[in-house]
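Thread title: Can someone regenerate the structure for this chain?

I was given the following input by a collaborator and told the matching structure tokens would be attached. They weren't. Posting the sequence so someone can regenerate them.
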Amino acid sequence: MQDPPCTIFPPILHLVTELKDSSIHGLPWQSFPHDWHGAEIPSSIGAAFRLATDGRWLRFEARAATPPSPPAPGETAGAFLEELWTRDVAEVFLAEEGSTRYSEWNLSPHGAWWAHAFADQRVRVPGFAPPDWVETWCHQASAPGWSAGILLPLPPTSDLHALRINVTMILGEAPRRYFASVVFPEATPDFHIIKWFPKPALEKN
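Best answer:
Regenerated them for you:
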């Protein structure tokens, strides 16, 4: 993909002092204006996310108004499980300006998660070990929708002003719909084009 994206949807990253403070629950949700192919998103889907950081940790939450896909075996809150992207999933990709390295974090509606580091586009870092401590949660009390979240560590050397973030979601089966911060209409969905990861809008709360 050589041409620039047709749409850039910069994620909003809220700067907070304490990620476990109850006040962060009042942070606004950010909705995707349309799907990968430019179709408007009905309110019945309700795909949305929010991001917050204290500079050391990142809190990523996602929600949808549709029923989640049934969990795969072992897909429970806190479980580390690959191939979450084959069902409903929310994803956040983290990179720094000027670097080809990035990480991918997957979150399922059921609270399972997966992560990996990449040296370049889709080139996995060999021997990657997930962080020792990651917290996830999920809520499905408001049928038929769901919401889930993950608290994950940022690299100690992270510079928030150099951070680049791609937020994505995949929902449904017929049809399967793709949402992303960076969209190339008419192309096959590809969330790994790191040179186009947008710079988030930093908002101090």
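The chain has one domain: 7-204.
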